Amino acid sequence: MNVGVLVSGNGTNLQALLDAEARGELAPARIACVVSNRPGVPALARAARAGKPHAVVDHRTFGERTAFEQQLLAELAAHQVDAVVLAGFMRVLTATFVDAFVARIINTHPSLLPAFPGVDAPAQAVAYGVRVTGVTVHFVDTSLDGGPIIAQIAVPVAAGDDAAALHARIQREEHALLPRVVQRLAAGCYSCEGRRVVERAE
Fold this sequence. Notes:
By secondary structure, the chain is α/β, with parallel strands linked by helices. The chain is built from six helices and nine strands. The strands form two sheets. The protein has a seven-stranded mixed beta sheet, with helices on both faces. A two-stranded antiparallel sheet has the order 8-9.
């Protein structure tokens, strides 16, 4: 399965995928390309160091969202991408994009969804005073972090945590979970029945 990774920033989740692939732990998935909606971000440098094809499709240069997403799709098609991973990709996708990869787009989010969707989820958790948060990997639909949930890991909120400390602990779990889900997606272990994810053994 050729996987396209969409990024917007630092790319630590991308790095986790690249490292897993280098260790032979991602097969039958293969990272075919990396595409950013922002130029000059560290994630692109990570892709370059790994020898992966990478490109920028800057959303700010398009007059409307559909044109931006069509260009994204064209870039992915050029690399024969079968599935898409949103790894810190900070754009909500519309049906133009989602319908091209039904049940083949996954996203990672630093909370136990449906709690704390959107940006700054660790800060939301700290502000709300919860004792437990975590990480979720889910299929993507047109909602904000609302697609069917594939896997979650709980992370305790420690006394005195600020958003940065909590996020760092969440990321350690995220960097382990995301490659595992991508590998199992490529192996055909996940399917959707309505809003329910069905998982089978490899």
